[in-house]
UniProtKB/TrEMBL annotation:
It comes from Nicotiana tabacum (Common tobacco). The keyword Lipoprotein does not apply. This is Peptidyl-prolyl cis-trans isomerase. It comes from the Eukaryota. Gene3D superfamilies: Cyclophilin-like (2.40.100.10).
Length: 295
């Protein structure tokens, strides 16, 4: 007699699933966790970076430049090598300049030496070489004295400030800025190769607006304290302006290496009247009435 097995029915599928445990987190548990778990704190700095110190624009020296027009210079070459001997000079007026001797002492000392003549040379009797209307005018170009240019000074010290970053912090942001031109320097290349060469050319911005193309390239070392009307008068003097065709032809000739291109360009922006520095020197001010510091 055989045995028979009775198969029991399989349990429903949901009975094979493992039990699910749900953590019971009430408000008390969350409060406990918040006090026992620590998270890295983020520190927020409320202090701002310290601003860089402002350039020292204290006016330590004052000099003057007298400007005049010599009407017979181009027709009468018997004036010799000093335009200050012009017999029928027509005065334009005087500029009083304040110099930033604390910021760029070498540049200021050299400029003052050129005004007083202690450098072995002087600006007196030399031409305003270029006028760029609405921007600046330039004077103090070195070269031949009989051409109204500055005789190279022999008593100046080497200006090491031309490679110092602090010397270029001030901007040409208005009219009346006095600057040592490095990028705009108009001295002859042959003259610059002389080991005794010193750059004493200078420019003064004429306004009315800024001249940002000069920033970070030329050394601002002073400002006009008196005589902005004289600056405006000089800026209004007519200059030689080449046509666009001449400019293009000159640029093409220079590209081909034609040396005459530079010679021809030398007369561009030259004043059509003989504007020159008829006198210059230092001003001693015992009790200055002007602000001792200007931007």
């Amino acid at each position: 007699m055989g045995c028979s097995a009775t198969l029991l029915p399989s349990p429903p599928p949901h009975l094979h699933r493992p039990p699910t445990f749900k953590p019971l987190l009430n408000r008390r548990s969350l409060l406990f966790l918040s006090t026992t778990l620590s998270f890295p704190a983020t520190t927020i700095s409320t202090s701002s970076a310290t601003p860089p110190p402002q350039p020292d624009t204290t006016i330590t020296e004052r000099v003057y430049l007298d400007f005049s027009i010599c009407p017979n210079y181009f027709t009468n070459r018997t004036l010799g090598d000093d335009l200050s001997n012009c017999s029928d000079s027509e005065p334009i007026g005087r500029l009083v300049l304040g110099l930033y001797g604390n910021l760029v002492p070498i540049t200021v000392s050299n400029f003052k030496s050129m005004c007083t003549g202690t450098s072995g040379s002087t600006y007196k009797g030399t031409l305003v070489q270029k006028i760029f209307p609405g921007q600046f005018f330039m004077a103090g170009r070195q070269g031949r004295r009989d051409k109204g240019e500055v005789k190279p000074p022999l008593e100046l010290i080497r200006n090491t400030e031309t490679v110092e970053s602090k010397a270029f912090v001030l901007e040409h942001n208005r009219g009346g800025i006095v600057s040592l031109p490095l990028s705009e320097n108009d001295d002859d290349d042959d003259l610059k190769l002389n080991p005794k060469y010193h750059n004493v050319e200078f420019l003064i911005t004429t306004g009315p607006g800024p001249a940002p193309q000069l920033d970070s390239k030329n050394i601002v070392f002073g400002t006009v304290l008196e005589g902005m009307d004289i600056v405006t008068s000089i800026a209004a003097i007519p200059t030689y302006k080449p046509s666009e065709n001449i400019r293009q032809y000159n640029g093409f000739a220079e590209l081909l290496g034609d040396g005459r291109a530079k010679t021809a360009r030398a007369i561009w922006n030259k004043p059509q009247q003989t504007v020159y520095i008829s006198d210059c020197g230092e001003l001693k001010v015992a009790k200055p009435t002007l602000s001792p510091s200007l931007p």
